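Me: I'm a chemist; would you kindly supply a protein sequence with its structure tokens?

Assistant:
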Amino acid sequence: MRVPWFRRAVLAPLGGLLLCLGCSASAPAAVLADLSIRYVNDEVITWGDIMLRNQMRQEIQRGRVLAPSNREELLSFSRASLDELTDESLLYQKAADLKLQADHQDIVLEVMEIAKRNGQGLTLREQALHRRQLERTRTSERLVMFFDGMAAQATPTELRALYDLGGARWDRPARAQALQIVLRPTGNDERAQLRTAKSALLRRAQDARSPLLAGRVQARLALFLEAAAKDQESVLDALVQDLSSPIDDLLPADQGLVAEAKALQSRMANVMDRDEALRRLDALRMSMVGLQGDALIKAFRTAGAISQAPVDPGWVEPGTLAPEWDQAAATAPLGEVTRPFIAQGMAVILLPTARDQARRRTFEEVSGELERLLRYQRRDLVRKQQVAIQRAKASIKDLQDLSELITR
């Protein structure tokens, strides 16, 4: 499916991104990147700055906010980037007056990390643009921290008031900690694929050149042709076993055939229906009867080598996993392996190790969170105050209308 140009515009590399614009599609990308959009005092914000900020914002918001999906959304997104760059320029200029500067080496390392995440790398020009924007961003952050450091720190009374205001925010639901062993019964599609692979093996095996191997194949082929349809599966299984067994006179031409049979044998060993999965888990449970404490935990973890899910999922709150899992983890005796049960189609046994009841966290427990919350709120307020002060004194002039640039 073709991705609309305006969605690509936010995520594409800068060079290709600029070619999506309606302002002279024949102009070189570098020329479009240098197009002046707004003056902020004696500094200029270019179209390249806006597009790069679009990319950076989308990277930060990915998974939480959808990329712009039409011209209006891209226009709104770009205007927000322009306003963000304007505020940043004002703070950067104030920081320069106070001789505040971000750490250059940290910025270089951050750009290198961006290039690594990008996968395709960044051109020298793109690296320079990233360094410029990050330097301005980090410097403006340092200015905010400078003024924030001059403000009075939060008092215990303020922290307590914020805690009381949070109310149910500090509630923590019941949670359980349990080790698990999970087996997935083989689905019908997977069984069909396996049978197809065994049938294909039988066809290829008829060209075997090793005498002993060829004899085994011909014997199984005769049985397969004589067997009823319901019995042919077992003949194919026996053929895989024959081809996987040691053969003294194996010729090099048949080595691939034997390797294929051994791979199929490994796949067949993992085939199980729901009853078989439950039986295997119950056998594991019985093997641990009589063990307690650390010895039981160690044995359970060792048995968990066959698990098809992490053995230790950590603390789990209700609703995170299957309801059956929650029920067993919440009610089974601590330190005892549960009987096997089915949860969302999976066969499971648990070893519950700890439980916490639902409760409200105390003021002492969340005091660190409260301090961080107040610090973020205070810094946001400081930033807004500084931007308002600098905007009142600034000369801001638009040179281009974004709505005329984003025309397609």
